């Protein structure tokens, strides 16, 4: 499932390429035909990302809510202006590790940070013709067909004169009023990139410390904290050396606050690089390897049966609330 960093990157892409522009909207798949007709010909006036949800505002104070869920993704094509404050799709805009050292530019082989398809990792399905403001990608072709042909099941296509965005496989794609958007956001836990960080820490700490629910479930509860998914959950718990089955109310306050602060840091790194980098203090060579391959990027996630990178104990995986939970039974007692 795309986690919070991906949704914030998508929102920034829309801010640079769609906000302030009139769009043509269609539903090639047909499942959002009525909604597409309502926003067709309107300008996008704002975009918001909160946790795993994105909200696009159209003229007339009409909002589109998109939740990518397990399999959703946005595919971008055409002239794409890359945000210079974050790493580009192929990692060429420079990346910084947690120590602040400038590190080699790396292309992720898995596509997690792909600009052309942000969301559920996949190979890009559409051609990208980059504008001169961006870093070019392999395969540029000024004579490519425009607009690009529809490939596969596209729930919604948003099209300006020069840029296309195709939405595939979302869990939610619906139109809301401004009041409905406010009500939806009010149900969500704090997001470090949206809410005041200090206030967010207090909200998060207060809620966790009064719950008997295991901390491993609380971190995935979007009403407790926004944006954390399976990968960040496993990594945050390991970095805190915290047993995922510990009831929230039994987790020491300083540890709960540490979880929030670590999430603030990891989310910023994820938005900057486009990848869920959770390992610290890597050498340039190790960093290059980690940025290029997810197998070298995490402490425990997706490492069931492999030795813990710290103590050598076999990493275990459990099924918890239909999701896989990875942890080290020795480091996280």
TrEMBL record:
<keyword id="KW-0511">Multifunctional enzyme</keyword>
<dbReference type="InterPro" id="IPR015886">
    <property type="entry name" value="H2TH_FPG"/>
</dbReference>
<dbReference type="Pfam" id="PF06827">
    <property type="entry name" value="zf-FPG_IleRS"/>
</dbReference>
<keyword id="KW-0862">Zinc</keyword>
<dbReference type="InterPro" id="IPR012319">
    <property type="entry name" value="FPG_cat"/>
</dbReference>
<keyword id="KW-0326">Glycosidase</keyword>
<keyword id="KW-0863">Zinc-finger</keyword>
<keyword id="KW-0234">DNA repair</keyword>
<comment type="similarity">
    <text>Belongs to the FPG family.</text>
</comment>
<protein>
    <recommendedName>
        <fullName>DNA-(apurinic or apyrimidinic site) lyase</fullName>
        <ecNumber>4.2.99.18</ecNumber>
    </recommendedName>
</protein>
<dbReference type="InterPro" id="IPR035937">
    <property type="entry name" value="FPG_N"/>
</dbReference>
<feature type="domain" description="FPG-type">
    <location>
        <begin position="299"/>
        <end position="333"/>
    </location>
</feature>
<keyword id="KW-0238">DNA-binding</keyword>
<dbReference type="Pfam" id="PF06831">
    <property type="entry name" value="H2TH"/>
</dbReference>
<keyword id="KW-0378">Hydrolase</keyword>
<keyword id="KW-0479">Metal-binding</keyword>
<dbReference type="Pfam" id="PF01149">
    <property type="entry name" value="Fapy_DNA_glyco"/>
</dbReference>
<keyword id="KW-0456">Lyase</keyword>
<feature type="domain" description="Formamidopyrimidine-DNA glycosylase catalytic">
    <location>
        <begin position="2"/>
        <end position="100"/>
    </location>
</feature>
<dbReference type="InterPro" id="IPR000214">
    <property type="entry name" value="Znf_DNA_glyclase/AP_lyase"/>
</dbReference>
<dbReference type="InterPro" id="IPR010979">
    <property type="entry name" value="Ribosomal_uS13-like_H2TH"/>
</dbReference>
<keyword id="KW-0227">DNA damage</keyword>
<dbReference type="InterPro" id="IPR010663">
    <property type="entry name" value="Znf_FPG/IleRS"/>
</dbReference>
């Amino acid at each position: 499932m795309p986690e919070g960093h991906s949704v914030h990157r998508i929102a920034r892409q829309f801010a640079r390429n769609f906000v302030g522009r009139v769009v043509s909207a269609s539903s090639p798949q047909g499942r959002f035909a009525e909604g597409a007709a309502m926003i067709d010909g309107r300008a996008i006036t704002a975009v918001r990302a909160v946790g795993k949800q994105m909200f696009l505002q159209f003229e007339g104070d009409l909002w589109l809510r998109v939740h990518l869920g397990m399999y959703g993704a946005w595919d971008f094509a055409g002239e794409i202006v890359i945000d210079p404050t974050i790493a580009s799709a192929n990692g060429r805009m420079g990346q910084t590790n947690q120590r602040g050292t400038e590190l080699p530019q790396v292309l992720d082989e898995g596509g997690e940070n792909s600009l052309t398809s942000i969301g559920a990792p996949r190979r890009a399905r559409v051609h990208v013709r980059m504008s001169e403001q961006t870093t070019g990608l392999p395969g540029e072709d000024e004579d490519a067909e425009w607009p690009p042909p529809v490939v596969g099941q596209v729930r919604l296509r948003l099209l300006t004169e020069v840029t296309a965005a195709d939405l595939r496989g979302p869990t939610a794609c619906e139109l809301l009023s401004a009041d409905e958007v406010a009500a939806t956001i009010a149900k969500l836990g704090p997001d470090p990139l949206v809410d005041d960080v200090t206030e967010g820490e207090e909200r998060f700490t207060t809620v966790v410390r009064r719950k008997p629910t295991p901390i491993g479930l609380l971190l995935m509860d979007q009403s407790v904290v926004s944006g954390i998914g399976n990968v960040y959950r496993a990594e945050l718990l390991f970095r805190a050396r915290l047993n995922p089955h510990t009831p929230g109310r039994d987790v020491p306050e300083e540890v709960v606050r540490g979880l929030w602060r670590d999430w603030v840091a990891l989310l910023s790194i994820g938005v900057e690089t486009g990848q869920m980098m959770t390992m610290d203090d890597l050498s340039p060579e190790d960093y290059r390897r980690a940025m290029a391959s997810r197998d070298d990027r995490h402490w425990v996630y997706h490492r069931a049966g492999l030795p813990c990178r710290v103590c050598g104990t076999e990493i275990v995986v459990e099924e918890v609330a239909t999701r896989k939970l990875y942890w080290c039974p020795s480091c996280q007692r």
